[in-house]
């Protein structure tokens, strides 16, 4: 039996300075490991005045939600002022809510708007040129947006790095600049040509030699190295190419002009195979392009000829309701496997994706299987 | 803006809680949950609230005596552990509105709490607190019966 005297904190400044944060199991493990000194963990809350705050670990982002309690929770600690008082505790704060954490997607879509006009293109590599054209003060958006600025976005650093890679954004002298798609394709073609002409294996390409070869085409070493990292792994002096990623990017370059005019599937595949040389011809497959094209048929042709339209999910709105509206405007009904790639970047996992489908779409079954149609207006 | 959260240090020289409470898992923080809340008139800083009695026997219930009210509590294991965060006091210029922009703000994670003491029942009135105290000292069982006199 021990009796403990409870007092209010002698300091009046304590009230309102405490928060209770509910730890989901995965985060709890990380925190425990870090406390025991087995690993390091950086935790931070990110958000602007207009945004809902998120909590970021090194790799993940969680939305913070305040959950109101009907009871009140007293935060009790040893008294801060007196030492050696073993039978005394102090109430530091009285709380009526806890913060719940919900895994969420990194909010990086802003980058696209922020970096508009900062594109890194062939012939326009010299960044000073841009800046002279437009006086800095005339447009605050033209301010150099750096990696440090990007860290302010609501995403963990790991997600930011992956996001920059997936959105093909270069870090040129500290400034973030999206590479222009056509310039990127030029670089990839040069790389593929280099592999063929020097007959080096694609899983062990000497990096130095490749950089020098590209410098002859006035492509800076720093750009080459970043592109190599996007499309493979650099280990010491050699680069292992990620064949699928390169093939996909090359295909997107061919498909991009066909946003409104469909291209015949056979013609497209033939063009794609030509572009990637004999070595990789066998690996060409439409599944690499999921979430980037729609199957259709060529107009005014009989019998129907399968064709493709460029339709990248990255061009669709981030807001789920707007995304579904766009999708159903494009197609009145979707097969589950066709719509899934267009929801991958707005849902954390497949469970979340199915929730979105339940909320915004209606399932319909006919002889061909399950279709999704819009919930609105019908 | 970015507000960093520091993690608890494994070995801390800060004063720790009485051993009976530290047994709950953290020597830094303990959470008491009340139905309703503590209302205080006037300056509360440093004022006495009451007495928390914590039995050695794990099956017995902790009690909180506030004035003439006795609350019976129970230990509850949290479904999801809670991290207790405390806003750090940073030496910034109080006239600048740094807080609003979060510059120089920091939260310290004091501890991870897995269990709390919940006082969910209605308080029982106690006529003579001193008598209760005396009764408790005599013996567990006897004390328990004696300490509550419903008036």
From TrEMBL, chain A:
GO terms for cellular component: chromatin; chromosome, centromeric region; Ctf18 RFC-like complex. InterPro entries: Dcc1. It comes from the Eukaryota. Pfam families: Dcc1. The keyword DNA-binding does not apply. Keywords: DNA replication. One of its GO terms (biological process) is maintenance of mitotic sister chromatid cohesion. This is Sister chromatid cohesion protein DCC1.
TrEMBL record, chain B:
Keywords: Cell cycle, DNA replication, DNA-binding, Nucleus. Its main location: nucleus. One of its GO terms (molecular function) is DNA binding. GO terms for cellular component: Ctf18 RFC-like complex. InterPro entries: Ctf8. It comes from the Eukaryota. Belongs to the CTF8 family. PANTHER family: CHROMOSOME TRANSMISSION FIDELITY FACTOR 8, CTF8, CHROMOSOME TRANSMISSION FIDELITY FACTOR 8 HOMOLOG (S. CEREVISIAE). One of its GO terms (biological process) is mitotic sister chromatid cohesion. It comes from Heliocybe sulcata. It is found in: Nucleus. This is Ctf8-domain-containing protein.
């Amino acid at each position: 039996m021990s009796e403990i005297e409870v007092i209010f904190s002698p300091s009046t400044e304590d009230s309102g300075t405490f928060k209770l944060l509910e730890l989901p199991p995965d985060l709890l493990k990380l925190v425990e490991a870090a406390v025991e000194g087995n690993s390091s963990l950086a935790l931070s809350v990110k958000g602007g005045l207009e945004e809902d705050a998120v909590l970021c670990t090194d790799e993940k982002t969680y939305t913070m939600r305040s959950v109101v309690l009907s009871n009140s929770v007293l935060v009790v600690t040893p008294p801060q002022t007196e030492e050696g008082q073993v039978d005394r505790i102090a109430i530091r704060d009285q709380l009526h809510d806890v913060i719940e954490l919900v895994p969420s997607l990194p909010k990086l879509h802003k980058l696209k708007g922020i970096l508009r006009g900062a594109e890194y293109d062939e012939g326009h590599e010299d960044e000073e040129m841009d800046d002279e054209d437009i006086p800095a003060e005339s447009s605050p958006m033209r301010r150099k947006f750096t990696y440090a600025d990007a860290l302010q976005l609501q995403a963990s650093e790991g997600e930011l790095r992956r996001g920059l890679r997936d959105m093909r954004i270069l870090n040129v002298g500290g400034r973030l600049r999206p590479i222009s798609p056509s310039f990127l394709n030029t670089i990839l073609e040069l790389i593929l040509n280099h592999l063929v002409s020097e007959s080096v294996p694609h899983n062990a390409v000497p990096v130095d030699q490749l950089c020098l070869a590209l410098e002859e085409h006035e492509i800076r070493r720093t750009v080459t190295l970043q592109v190599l990292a996007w499309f493979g792994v650099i280990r010491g002096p050699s680069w292992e190419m990620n064949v699928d990623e390169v093939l996909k990017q090359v295909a997107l370059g061919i498909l991009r002009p066909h946003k409104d005019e469909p291209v015949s599937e056979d013609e497209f595949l033939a063009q794609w195979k030509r572009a990637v040389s004999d070595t990789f011809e066998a690996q060409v497959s439409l599944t690499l392009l999921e979430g980037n094209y729609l199957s259709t048929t060529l107009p005014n042709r009989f019998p129907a000829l399968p064709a493709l339209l460029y339709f990248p999910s990255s061009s669709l709105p981030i807001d789920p309701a707007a995304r579904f509206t766009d999708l159903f405007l494009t197609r009145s009904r979707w097969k589950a496997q066709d719509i899934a790639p267009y929801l991958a970047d707005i849902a954390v996992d497949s469970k979340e994706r199915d929730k979105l489908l339940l909320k915004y779409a209606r399932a319909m079954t006919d002889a061909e299987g399950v279709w999704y149609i819009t919930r609105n207006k019908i | 803006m970015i507000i960093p959260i520091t993690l608890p240090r494994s070995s801390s020289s800060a004063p720790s809680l009485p051993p009976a409470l530290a047994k709950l898992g953290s020597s830094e923080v303990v959470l008491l949950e009340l139905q309703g809340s503590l209302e205080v008139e006037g300056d509360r800083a440093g004022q006495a609230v009451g007495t928390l009695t914590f039995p050695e026997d794990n099956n017995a219930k902790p009690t909180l005596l506030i004035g003439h009210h006795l609350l019976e509590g129970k230990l509850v294991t949290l479904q999801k552990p809670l991290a207790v965060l405390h806003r750090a006091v940073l030496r910034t210029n109080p006239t600048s509105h740094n807080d609003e922009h979060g510059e120089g703000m920091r939260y310290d994670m004091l501890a991870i709490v897995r269990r709390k003491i919940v006082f969910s029942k209605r308080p029982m009135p106690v006529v003579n607190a001193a008598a209760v105290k005396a009764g408790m000292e005599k013996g567990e069982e006897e004390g328990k019966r004696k300490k509550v006199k419903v008036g």
